[in-house]
Design a protein that fits this description.
CATH class of the domain at 1-71: Mainly Alpha
Distance between the termini: 47 Å
Oligomer: single chain
Number of helices: 5
CATH topology of the domain at 1-71: Multidrug-efflux Transporter Regulator, Chain: A, Domain 2
Radius of gyration: 18 Å
Largest sheet: 3 strands, antiparallel
Structural class: mainly alpha
Strand order of the largest sheet: 1-3-2
Number of strands: 3
Length: about 130
């Protein structure tokens, strides 16, 4: 790593993130107002420092809006749905390795089922965009 490169876990300023995403800074500030998942640390004078998690979400938002043609409202819904489904997955994992019917599932089967569910959800979103 050279002196000018930051660690992947380092916080980034708004100008660094805007440059990396090829977006104006005002767009990032606007997205902060529309997507509660993005919440950089704010220091003296309102200076923003983006965490790696914030940057990952911003990259995802950029792809969904600019490359995949989602609207802001569509991205908001998608991120909300993903957040609630990941909360459900976390609750299921903490409850043990049983499905809702009480049947024990090994971790390999759980991974296969989770991948299948994710693929089905992706296809559903694609169909929804195509139809309406």
């Amino acid at each position: 790593m050279t002196k000018t490169e930051k660690s992947p876990t380092a916080f980034r300023t708004i100008s660094e993130v805007a440059g990396d995403l090829d977006l104006p800074q005002h767009v990032l500030r606007f997205w902060e107002s529309k997507f509660p998942q993005v919440h950089p640390l704010k220091r003296g004078g309102g200076r923003r420092y983006y965490r790696p998690e914030d940057i990952a979400i911003l990259k995802r938002i950029r792809v969904l809006l600019h490359d995949e043609g989602y609207t802001i409202r569509g991205v908001q819904k998608l991120l909300r749905d993903e957040s609630s489904s990941s909360d459900g997955a976390a609750q299921a994992e903490t409850a043990g390795s049983h499905d809702s019917s009480g049947v024990q599932i090994d971790s390999g089967a759980r991974e296969v089922l989770t991948a299948a569910i994710n693929e089905l959800e992706d296809m559903k979103r694609l169909l929804q965009r195509t139809v309406g």
